[in-house]
Every structure is written in structure tokens, then in C-alpha cells.
Amino acid sequence: MKEDLYDDLYLEEKEEKTDFKAVLFKYTIHWPWFVACILLCLAGAWLYLRYTAPVYNISASVIIKDNDKNSKSNTGIVDLEDLGFYSSINNFDNEVEILHSRTLIRKVIEELDLYINYAAEGSFHNIELYKSSPIKVWITPEEAQKLSMPAYLNLSIQPGNKLNVKVSIGEQEYIKQFDKLPALLTTPSGTFSFTPKDSIDIKSEQKIIVTVSSPYNVANDYRKALSIEPTSKSTTIAQISVKSTHTQRGMDFINKLVEVYNRDANDDKNEVATKTAEFIDERIKIINGELGTTEQELETFKRDAGLTDLKSDAQLALSENSEYEKKRAENSTQLRLVQFLAGYANNPDHAYEVLPVNVGLTDTGLAELINRYNEMLLERKRLLRSSQENNPVVVNLDASIRAMRSNVLTTINSVQRGLAITQADLERQAGKYAGRITNAPGQERQLVSISRQQEIKAGLYLMLLQKREENAITLASTANNARMVDEALADAIPVSPKGKMIYLVALILGIALTVVVIYIIELLKYKIEGRADVEKITSLPIVGDVPLSEDKGKEESIVVHENQNDLMAETFRNVRTNVLYMMRSDEKVILVTSTTTGEGKTFIASNLAVSLALLGKKIVIVGLDIRKPSLNKAFNLSHREQGISQFLANPEHTDLMSLVQVSRINANLSILPGGPIPPNPTELVARESLPQAIDILKKHFDYIILDTAPIGMVTDTLLISRVANASIYVCRADYTHKADYTLINELSEQKKLPNLCTLINGLDMKKKKYGYYYGYGKYGKYYGYGKKYGYGYGYGTENVNKK
């Protein structure tokens, strides 16, 4: 039956350990801390939102044209793809990478001067100035790129265009005063120019902070803030967005990014036409000089020879030969063009330069091959804008270019040999007709030769002029690669900081910080404060929680009296009930000890004895703390010189019962004080006279309470424990160290103290947490609010043995 009661009480104690209401109360009693910390965090959040520049998302939609459709349909490139010399990649993805490249973004940064930032100095935070600074600071991008760290310029602008400048670059400082603007400040890191804006009139001192950073670093920052994503998988429309603290700056950045991208793309597309224009202009200059020389020779010859008309027979002979001469002229033109192309292509300096193609070549196969070769060179340059030469795509493309170049050179040589063969054949045919005019005057032959040269030069000159106009039309008709669908526009609501989220985080942080602080404070407490602390450090049953006596000056006095129903009386009734249920009916000896002095073991033993006496039991309390007897003071005994030490020292000649004094508090309570302090207390309690004394007392009393010495200071209590049936270890709230339970737990494990339990003494009821426990929490169960008291003073289920 008793075992079942023990199990029930143990389960109930386990339930109490999970008393979440108690845990909640441990924090809610500190509600002022929560309120203060939450208000502090909310104030911090308000200050953060007040002085943090909002970040906006600026976005634009851009359609990117796919210019590779025609080139990919080219059979030559398809053949190269089949051979593995050329890898086709998605054009849209390439263009997105170019838009996101550091090189392109850096150009935008330099053109918009975004590596130079302005801010007006404020009381709590600086106000960003974009295109509204009263003065413009300039340093070349090349000099700014050399800065190892940002340069900070503190400008103090005075009325009358006066300026005080302080430049800080790392640990170096440069201070200069200018009485007139514009002005220059030369430093080892670069030259800074200061130019006032005409539209701004300085009437009072203004302080401006200018930050100059490396364009490369600024480009990296913008690259991180830049996002380019397709609007869907089946479209070439890209959503370009950037996050910025200034909406106008973000819109300018996106617009300039698209502008620079189109400009670079057009430069790439126009490279072939530009090279062709240079070639045509060079040839026109040469042919123009040769044509002028030929016309001058013809004029001189006619004037010197006095020729005015040609003979009909010579004209007839020459007319028969005109067809072959015309073919020879065309053949000569083509041969010279091919020879020039061969020299241009074989020049090592032109290894990765496009070849002129629109120069009048009649061989369509050669012209088509050169076009494909030029397209591959342009593709290589575009890839190098966003990658390195060791990129696998570039390496494969280089191999394709070398193969294509070899093919072009072979074709040029083949065409050149064919033209040479044709030239020899035409010369043989012309030789036949030359014999027919051998009899013509030498002057006539010379005149015809000069005229023929003039016709050749004039035809070539007109053809080059026509090609130049065609090439100019090609340059003028180049379309942009990207077109704005939606102009850059900033969102109305900033993306950060988010006010609601910041306040929510501040609220949670305020609560969390308070909980952490309270938890750390509780964690750092090294003294026992109540039942919860004891339950965490020991598995010993707790037989009671004794509140602090109202009269602190009389802590060792008796607080339990007959016909009294106050808190202290109820407390000791509970202790009495729990202790009795831990003992069998034949067990009578209760040992009371503590770790050190001042924990109230004598107070507990004395009042427990009184409470037991009120049950009508014969009780004797024995003062076995013979080193420092305390029962005389507790019970205000008259014969203080008598005590158990006399019997222990000389049991044969001492009457033990004559040393027992009847208490004036209750007739059922007797006291056997410690008596005179002996020189050898340990040896006395170790003698067999102690068990003899206990046997004598058992014959006269129902229960014997032993008030022993502190177990943490002397070994007397361990020697006395051999005569005890139950042991009560007394700890005191806000006094006993938690580490003291290490010794008690060891004694319990080694079973050196019989039937060991613990009791908490000195709970300060004025503290809110104890008031909660006694009024409405777990301790209240002992005093009328729970089943532990429901059966009366001596019949509850208070057995808390956890063994």
C-alpha cells in the first residue's frame, strides 16, 4: 500500500516539474523588464527606420533582338558545328551576360560619374545628393581606379564661391582653401577639380561630403544589385531591375546601361563595314592619282603628235580587238583585288581582323566564304567582352576561325591562279589581233594604249565610288540590338527596410532579449531560491517548503503552537505528515542536519518536534550538535549545563533520563540538550554509548529527533546516522549554495544517511515568485487547494519518496 502511495507521489512530482505555468510566471513577474526592453527595441527600430535610407527597386523591360538567326542558318557554320569546330549557344543568354558584365557596367559607372557620390552633412545622418550638389567634384576614372581605398572629401562651401577642402585617403590628409572657383587640388593619388554650379546661389555655409571610389569596385556593387531575368521562357524580353537608395539614379543607370549596350553592339556589327570603307577610301585615293596621270599623258601625247582624228582602218582593227581588251581590263581588276586581299589576309597583324568583302569581287564563293569568316571573328569579339580567352567556347571558336582562315587563304590562292591563267589566255587572243595593226603608225598605237589605260582606271574609279555609297548605306541602316518596352520606373514602396517587419523583429527581439537576460541571471545564480532549484539538482524527495519567519531576529524560536492555524503551523503539519509517511511504524529516530551553520536545522528540528507533540505523541529532541549546542536557546532551557554529552562520556555513572527536560511549550515534548562542550566530540558520538542512549529514549518516547552538526563541516553526523531511521537535510533559500548538494547526492548514492530527504527553509514570502507559489501555485496544494491537504493534517498522500 505504501509503495503505491510512493509511486503516486513520484508521478505527481514529475507532473509538477512540467508546470509550465510556473515557468511562465518566472518570466512574467519581471514584466517591467519586458516592457522596458520592448520599448527600447521599438525605439531603436523607429530610429533605424527614421535615419536609414529606403532602398527602392527600379525596373525596365527590354526586348533583345536575336541577330543570330540568319548566321545560324548559314550552311558553312552548320557544317563546322557538325565537325565540332563551332559551338552554337543561345543568343539571348549571351546578351544577358553581356548586359550583366563588369566591363559594360563599368562604362556606365564612368559615363554617369557614379563613382563620385555626394551627401549633405546632417545632424544625425547625411542626406544623399544626386545631381543636386552645389559643387561638382571631378577626378578621371583612370586616377580613381588607382585608389587603393575610397577618398573622402569634406567640403565647406562659403558664400562668394570660397571653398575649404579636406581630402582623406587612408591615413593621408590634404587640406586646402580656395578663394575662387573653379579650382584644382593636386595630390599624389590624383588631381581633383572643383566647379560650382551656376544655377545654385550659396548664401550660407554648406558642408558636403564627397566619396570617390574605384570604378571597378562600384561596378561590382552595382553588378550585385542588378538583376536581369527573362519575363518567360518563350520570349526574348528581359526584366532589368536594380536596387538603389535614389530612384532617379537607378533609372539613369538602367537607361545608360541599355544605351551603352546598344552602342557597343552597333560598333561590333559595323566593324566589317568600317573596315570596308577604309579599304575603299584607300583604293579611291590610289586610283584617282593613277587616273590623273593617264589623262595627262593622253593630253601631252596628242599635243606633241598633233593628232586630231584616227584612221578608219586602224579603228576597224582596234574595234575587233576591243572585246578582248575589255576582258583583259576586267581580269586585271579582279587580279589586283585578289592580290590585295591575299596580302591583307597574310599580314600577321590582321590575324583577328575582318577582311574587306564588298569591294567588287566577282567570285561569289570567295565573297560568301569571307562573310562567314568575318561573322566568326565578330562572334569571338562579343564573347571576349564577358569572358576570357581560356573560355572553352572561345577556345573552340578560335579553332574554327583558324580552320576557316586556312580555307579562305586557300580559296584566295585558287582564285588568283585561275585569274592568272585567264589573263594569259586573253593576252594570247589579243596578240592575234595585234598583228593586224602592226602596220599602223606608232603614234596611233601609243594613243590607243593610253586611251585604254584611261578607260580601265575610270571604270575602276566609278566602281569604287559606287561601292563606297553602298557601304555608307549599310552603316546608316544599323538597328539597335535592344529596345525599351517599358521605361525604367521605381516602385512606390521601398523594398527595404520594411517597417512592419522591422517593428515585428524589434518586438520579438525585445521579448527574446529579456528572456535571455532573465535566463542568464537565473543560470548564474549559485544559491538555492526555491523548490524548482532543488528539483533540478537532486532527486531526493522534498518533504516541505518552510517560509521565512516574520521575526527575523528570532529565527531559532518556536513558531508552532497549539490551537494555531497560521501559515507556519500549516507548513510544519505538512512536513510532519510527509516525514511520517516516509517511516515505518517501528521507526522512531529522525535525524536533522544541513551543510553549514545558519541554514536553520535547529529551527526545523525544534518546530517539527513541537508539531509531532501536538499529535499527542511523546517526543524528545536531542541536541547532538555538541560542538555548538542550540537547543538551550531555542527552548529557553533553565538547566543548560546538563546534556547528552555527559551520558556519552560516562554512561555507567550517568542517568540519561535525569538529563531530559520537559518543555514548557507542550507536555508531550521533552528536550535533551547537548550539555557541556567536550574536547573530543567525534570520539563521543562514535562510542557505543550513543546507541545505548537511543535505546533508552525509545522506551520512553514515540519519536526521537536528533539535532546534529552540519554535515558539510564535520563528520559527527555520519557517525550519528547509524542510529537514525530517517534523515532530513535542511537547505535555506538564498543562503545554501547549489554546489552543496553535490555532497548530499553522493551521500544518498552511497546510502550513508538512512532514508534521506530534503527540506527548503527560509523562503521569503515577500518575493512575488514565492507569493505566487503559496497562494495559487504548486505550494498552495499543501494548504487547502490541492489533494495533498484534502485528507486532513495527517492523512494526505504527501509521501514524496522518489526512490
TrEMBL record:
Q: Which domain of life is it from?
A: Bacteria
Q: Which residues form the Tyrosine-protein kinase G-rich domain?
A: 444-519
Q: What is its main location?
A: membrane
Catalytic activity of the protein: L-tyrosyl-[protein] + ATP = O-phospho-L-tyrosyl-[protein] + ADP + H(+)
Subcellular localization, as worded in the UniProt entry: Cell inner membrane
- Segments spanning the bilayer are 31-49, 501-521
Q: Which UniProt keywords apply?
A: ATP-binding, Cell inner membrane, Cell membrane, Kinase, Membrane, Nucleotide-binding, Transferase, Transmembrane, Transmembrane helix, Tyrosine-protein kinase
Chain ranges of the AAA domain: 588-720
Topological category with respect to the lipid bilayer: Multi-pass membrane protein
Query: Which is one GO molecular function term here?
Result: ATP binding
Q: Name one GO cellular component term.
A: plasma membrane
InterPro entries assigned: AAA_dom (IPR025669), Bact_polysacc_biosynth/exp (IPR050445), GNVR (IPR032807), LPS_length_determ_N (IPR003856), P-loop_NTPase (IPR027417), Wzc-like_C (IPR005702)
- Protein name from the UniProt record: non-specific protein-tyrosine kinase
The Polysaccharide chain length determinant N-terminal domain extends over 28-112
According to its UniProt record, which protein family does this protein belong to?
Belongs to the CpsD/CapB family.
What Enzyme Commission number(s) apply to this enzyme?
A: 2.7.10.2
Lineage of origin: Bacteria, Pseudomonadati, Bacteroidota, Bacteroidia, Bacteroidales
